[in-house]
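Researcher: Please generate the 3D structure of the following complex. Treat every line as part of one assembly.
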Amino acid sequence: MKRDIDTLLTERRLAAAVIIKGEHPNPTFRYAVGPAAQHLGTGYLVLRPGSKPHLLHGGMERDAAAQTPFERSEYGDWGYAKIREKEGSPVGASARLLQTLLQHLGVSGDVLFSGVLDVGQSYHTLERLREYLPGIRIAADTDPGLFHLARLTKDDEEVAAARAVGDICTRAYARIEEIIRGGRLEGKRLKDAEGWVTIGRLRRETRRIFFEAGLEEPHGNIVAMGRDAGVPHNVGNDADVLEEGKPIVIDLFPVEAGGGYYHDVTRTICVGRAPEELRELHSLVREAVDKAVESLHVGASGRTYQELVCDLFEARGHRTIRQDERIEEGYVHGLGHGIGLEVHERPNLSGSAANQDRIEPGSVFTVEPGLYYPSRGLGVRIEDVVHVKQDGTIETLTHVPYELEIAPA
Amino acid sequence: MKRDIDTLLTERRLAAAVIIKGEHPNPTFRYAVGPAAQHLGTGYLVLRPGSKPHLLHGGMERDAAAQTPFERSEYGDWGYAKIREKEGSPVGASARLLQTLLQHLGVSGDVLFSGVLDVGQSYHTLERLREYLPGIRIAADTDPGLFHLARLTKDDEEVAAARAVGDICTRAYARIEEIIRGGRLEGKRLKDAEGWVTIGRLRRETRRIFFEAGLEEPHGNIVAMGRDAGVPHNVGNDADVLEEGKPIVIDLFPVEAGGGYYHDVTRTICVGRAPEELRELHSLVREAVDKAVESLHVGASGRTYQELVCDLFEARGHRTIRQDERIEEGYVHGLGHGIGLEVHERPNLSGSAANQDRIEPGSVFTVEPGLYYPSRGLGVRIEDVVHVKQDGTIETLTHVPYELEIAPA
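Model: Done. Output below.
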């Protein structure tokens, strides 16, 4: 949680952590600053153990900055225009400004740097800073990183936000169900008063519901049918008309507009009667979700749940990624990922031996097994978001029906 | 332009440029890859002068990758799971994968790194890479950087995209005008059939028009009245009811959904009759736009136009940022910025002596002078996007009326 940051800084003997805010969205800055972050431009947030954080921000954003609880200064207070002129390059200017600021704040020793910036530019900025301020060392982060570790355990407000976004997803699926039930089959294809019902139509309706509810989809979404449903990240083809008996994978991962919390949910549906093979895959994937969620307990490693699902799928004759990371049919991905201010956070539920993440109270993450057979036009994924409560019990934050078959009129 | 990348690599004697794609939006990756980029996850794009670019991507995104013209490989082809396991940390795994890839592609010498990643993590990844692959050097970029230099000159398709987004902005302002004209004053405040007309209402209507047209506002927008209009980046207060005679600064900067091109336009309007002082400020800011745009010519430095506007404002008794970077009243910011796949690109039209940017054919940028007196409840900004055509003539891509006063019914 946010209050853990100070303890983590102390434990790791860090003199400071500096979050650099460029123009790109910066979830860690948003985490440390709160919602006021969305109205702040470029700047620097310096966190020192036991001290009030210092925010250096643009003068034009002084109203947004005034809403934060931090000690504050503006670029102009440090004579930035002169620094920029003297240094010439943005790399030199940033390094000199950082040097000036950190010296003023009395920071020396190990400093952790975070923020979302251009790789090359920030590399050379830190190299230059080491030259300008030899008293600091660019600290290596742990894995998970310090801020990811804090973000790993969500407080009640964060869980409530993820749940609320999930409730809007429920509405989106209900609308899709309504559209399908309101259509009729012409041959094998679905039609209604507006014409052929297409993948694009479902996507548009979903987008509209999210828009009305104040959500965004910065990473898009997946509404993919048949063979496309069999390739996990194929986003689907808007021109496809919904066809009876084909799987449609609908994976939605919207976020509160302006940089808030994500939800991430997948259902696989089918217009009318599903073929036997599809029903079996769906039932097995459903079983995998249930088994994994039932087994979840505090202290267990995220990896064990991937193992459990691989065990189940392999026992039923499916190949899995733990047998071969290059497979394209069977169970081809990890079981899940933390979710919060980013769509992929910690803990990780992948099967890599390098994955040391554990289930902790306050964790919020997805459980999303799937089975994929693109060569046979088949793909099934089911994904829920779960929350590990402080008492260790698991609650599912996603409340979307699991039914595979939806009958048109 | 995109085709310049190869020449730039050669001129700078770079063995390669590597664009690292993480989970954050990455405009340079989008520039190099095209619209297919929005359906690609993490990966690496390696550009070598005279060779076909190589894209390393996730297996689940193979359908999107197949739409690119690049030489391709997947994580699995390089045994990434084993690498991840052996290296333990993500930093080590990324460095080892990069080493393997670059060695396979025969890259040694100066390599430019770009991409949008966490500062600390990417710093240590590149440090580790230097250790794993001593034959490469992490090249320092120029200013503007190589990719920003290429992006500085837009082709016809890019200009058309910026213009099309501008046309939708025109629609948004027309809707705002329609709302104001459809209201009536009760005392000094505006009301219509839906109730008091608020700042929030204008913002919502604008958002809806953008949504319907397939645009997003990842950086939000500004609809700010009175004193708030006097602080350039104050986004405005949704609860404020529109009041006769107060300036309302409306700054819109939407982008094509899924990571396309931006437009950026500002108008200052006023319900009913504007006080004399506001009309004078507005007329002077309008004059500054006209003077700057009329003077624009190929080869001139962006800085000269800021000087020109400062000259004009100072001659009329206003203080400017070139006199004091910390001022909060008068002309408090730079004249403009390039715009494209990011809302702030090159060329820069600020007044810093360090600003060496020049106006070139193909440049697309904003011209946005403003005058701010928050202590008197006043702020005026007018912003257009202009394009320098190949023949050196200037065309304004923004077509929104400049009128200050809008009379309610």
